[in-house]
Specification:
Layout (H helix, E strand, L loop, with lengths): L1 H10 L6 H8 L3 H13 L3 E5 L2 E6 L16 E7 L2 H10 L6 E12 L5 E4 L4 E7 L9 H19 L3 E4 L3 E4 L2 E13 L2 E11 L15 H5 L5 H17 L6 H6 L8 E5 L4 E9 L5 E4 L5 E4 L3 E4 L1
Parallel strand pairs: 3-4
Antiparallel strand pairs: 1-2, 4-5, 4-6, 6-10, 7-8, 8-9, 9-10, 11-12, 11-15, 12-13, 13-14
C-alpha cells in the first residue's frame, strides 16, 4: 500500500487530496494518513496540509515498495548480522527463485574463507536466492555471471573501467569496489539453491579499513543512488540467469578480467600456490603454470596479483 500511495504522489503535479488517494485505492483516509506517517518516519519528505499531500523528496531507500515489479520478493532490513544468513533460512523454507535480501548495514558480513566483510552505512549489501535448473558442477558459473554483470552494469552507469578479478572481486584501477560470495545446497545431482551475496562500496568510505578499496562515490565525486544501481543490476542479472548466457559466461568473463596472463599467488585452505594464471576452464577453475612448467587447476581461493 505504501508503494501505491507513493506512485500516486509521484505521478501528481502538485498537492493530492486525501480523498482522491482514498477513492483511487479504496481504503479509508485514516489508513492513508497512517501509511503516510510511516513513510515520513522512513525518510520521505511529504508535505501535509489541509488541501492534501505532496511528495517533496524521497530518500535513497531500499524498501520493497521502491521496486514495484519485485516488491513481493524483496526483504529489507535496516541492520542484520549477514544477508547470507537470512537468505539461507529463507531458501531452506522454500522462498521463490530470485528472492532478494537487502541490508542497510551488516555487523557480521561474510567474505571469502570466513573473513569479515566490512559493511558500513552507505554501501549496498544484498543476497539473491537462485533456484537454477542446473547440475552442481555448473554452479560456479553463476558466481562468475554475477561478477561480470555487475562490472558491465557499473561501466554502463558510471563510465568507469570496472574489471573482474578471479574469483569474484570487482576492481577499478586496481582498487576493490565490490566483493561477491556464493553458497550452494544441492541434493544428488540437482541444485536446491544458490545464494549469491554482493557487497558494493557505493557511498561509504572503505579506505580506513581497506586502503586498497574505493567507493563509487569517491570515483564519481558525487552521491550515488543505491536504488537505481540495484534495480539495474537485478534486471541485468535476471536476464542473464533466465536466458542461455551461462553457456558462454566464462568466455565473456575472460574478456573483462585483470587476472589472466600475470603472476599470481593463490591461497586456499590447504596450500599456497604461485605461478602465471594462463587460463580458466569451462567452469571457472583457474589454470596456473607453476615454476617447473607444470599446470594446476584451482577451483577456489584468495588470489593476489603479484
Amino acid at each position: 500500500m505504501k508503494g501505491k500511495i507513493l506512485k500516486i504522489l509521484k505521478a501528481g503535479q502538485g498537492v493530492i487530496s486525501g480523498e482522491a488517494i482514498s477513492s483511487e485505492l479504496g481504503i479509508s483516509r485514516v489508513s492513508i494518513w497512517k501509511h503516510l506517517r510511516k513513510l515520513q518516519e522512513s525518510g520521505y519528505n511529504i508535505d501535509a496540509s489541509s488541501k492534501g499531500y505532496q511528495l517533496i523528496s524521497s530518500p535513497d531507500a531500499l524498501f520493497p515498495w521502491e521496486f514495484p515489479a519485485r516488491e513481493k520478493k524483496i526483504h529489507f532490513f535496516p541492520e542484520v548480522t549477514s544477508t547470507m544468513d537470512i537468505a539461507r533460512d529463507l531458501a531452506r523454507k522454500g522462498c521463490p527463485h530470485f528472492t532478494v535480501v537487502i541490508a542497510g548495514c551488516q555487523n557480521r558480513g561474510r567474505g571469502r574463507l570466513k573473513r569479515l566483510w566490512l559493511s558500513s552505512q552507505g554501501g549496498l549489501y544484498f543476497t539473491i536466492i537462485l533456484r537454477p535448473q542446473i547440475s552442481p558442477v555448473l554452479s560456479l558459473r553463476v558466481n562468475f555471471a554475477a561478477s561480470l554483470i555487475l562490472a558491465q552494469t557499473l561501466n554502463n552507469m558510471f563510465d568507469i573501467d570496472a574489471r573482474v578479478k578471479w574469483p569474484n572481486d570487482i576492481l577499478v584501477d586496481g582498487r576493490k569496489v565490490s566483493g561477491i560470495l556464493s553458497e550452494i545446497e544441492a541434493e544428488a545431482d540437482i541444485v536446491s539453491f544458490i545464494n549469491v551475496g554482493l557487497g558494493i562500496n557505493v557511498n561509504n568510505d572503505p579506505t580506513d579499513d581497506e586502503p586498497k578499496a574505493v567507493s563509487l562515490k569517491q570515483l564519481s565525486g558525487s552521491e550515488i543512488s543505491r536504488k537505481r544501481l540495484l534495480s539495474a543490476f537485478l534486471d541485468n542479472f535476471e536476464n542473464c540467469i533466465n536466458g542461455k548466457a551461462l553457456d558462454n559466461i566464462i568466455r565473456e568473463w575472460k574478456k573483462h578480467t585483470v587476472t589472466l596472463n600475470r603472476y599470481v599467488k593463490i591461497v586456499t585452505v590447504r596450500e599456497i600456490l604461485e605461478g602465471i594464471a594462463i587460463d580458466m576452464d569451462e567452469n571457472g577453475a583457474l589454470i596456473l603454470e607453476l615454476a617447473d612448467g607444470s599446470t594446476k587447476k584451482v577451483l577456489y581461493g584468495d588470489c593476489f596479483h603479484i
